[in-house]
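User: I'm putting together notes for a lab meeting next week and I want to include a structural view of one of the chains we've been expressing. I don't have a solved structure, so I'd like a prediction I can at least talk through. The sequence is below, exactly as it appears in our construct file.
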Amino acid sequence: MRGPLVYLNGEYVPYDDAKLGVEDRSVQFGDGVYEVVRYYGGRPFKMDSHMRRLTRSAAGIDLAIPSTSEIAGAMDELVRRQNMPEAAVYLQITRGETARVQGIPKNLKPNVIAIARPATSARPASGIAIVTQSDDRWARCNLKTTMLLPAMLARSRAERLGAQDAIFVRDGFVTEASAANVFIVSKGVVLTPPLSNYLLAGCTREAILELHGANGIESREQLITHADLLDADEVFLSSTNGELRPVTKIDGRPVGTGEVGPVFSRTIALFDAATRQLVVV
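Assistant: Thanks for the context. Below is the predicted structure for the 281-residue chain, given as structure tokens.
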């Protein structure tokens, strides 16, 4: 097999044989939605949450998609066929192919693509550095679409400045990182920005809030100002691919003591225990 196996419109084909037309709407307009699902021990983590979000994103751009049970089954089968217990599966659904026209053509057939690749859980000894940046993205960031250029530009700027990620700030309030949700710890309480059209409802974010609630860690959704971020005792990011990452430097300044904090350490332990349960079920 040449490269990873690809699910493409109902078929499982070698990577080199998986093709889309040059006038696919995702190529011409970024017209599509996507999800990334992590697998631990061959089992998906938070699949139901991912499929609910996929449905919301597709509805938000008036895109008809196949049943989520069919999609989830295809992702599971990709992992099974490649004997890939620790995996990240990227799913993308585009509106389909047509001659380049403005507006949204009727009766297009969506293209459904999924690729599974091996994934590992990185546990760096120290935290990451981030930079803050004005959030000038469109106002529908709650939809997980393939229009990711602003996020990629933000990540590229961060790397030029010697950091690993960027956190967006809109009108003085923190929204999210380039591809992750933001948590801070202030006076022993974990805070994360409330869901709105300006940030994505992360499935790992949801898992963290559930784990905190079940284990007596005080957490709540609350608006976080730029000043709150800089004054926090701890800061960490959550995402499907990155899992949980502690932040120990923001805009060149240390976060708290400049070391990975106790709340993050407990949270990552709880998260790892939850994903290990998938392996032994």
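A couple of points you could mention at the meeting. The chain is about 30% helix and 30% strand. The domain at 5-118 is CATH 3.30.470.10 (D-amino Acid Aminotransferase; Chain A, domain 1).

User: Perfect, that's what I needed.
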